[in-house]
Amino acid sequence: QVQLVESGGGLVQFGGSLRLSCAASGLESNNIAIGWFRQAPGKEREGVSCINRATNNTYYPDAVKGRFTISRDNTSNTVYLQMDSLNPEDTAVYFCAAVFIAPTTPIQTMCNKPHSGYYWGQGTQVTVSS
After folding, report:
1. Nearest-CA neighbor of 96 among 77, 30, 62?
2. In sequence order, what are the beta bridge partners of 54?
3. Residues 81-110: pLDDT tens digits?
4. Given the DSSP bridges, would you call strands 46-52 and 32-39 parallel, antiparallel or unpaired?
């Protein structure tokens, strides 16, 4: 059974940093991509960072490129999202997601086109004050 548990959200001031963690279990295959998505009130869920476990390829949309960094710790099956230079537009509920993916599939596909085959965590709130 796949389980994703996020932690690390909270309240931070403009320009501050947070690191989110996603503890994953039940994902034994290496053909896995794990990503972070966010959803702000009244907006659609959007991918902000994705990583292919087999290739270590990563993807960031322009909105967060240079500010967010995704990384993984294989020993603990944990994926991290380091978020720097946060601004109020980053305020949202952040979700960890995982999906089985072929190594040759472009990693941006995971971030841009989530489908019903994704596994999702429960989400963690990130609030950035101005």
Report:
1. 77
2. none
3. 999 999 999 999 999 999 998 888 899 999
4. antiparallel
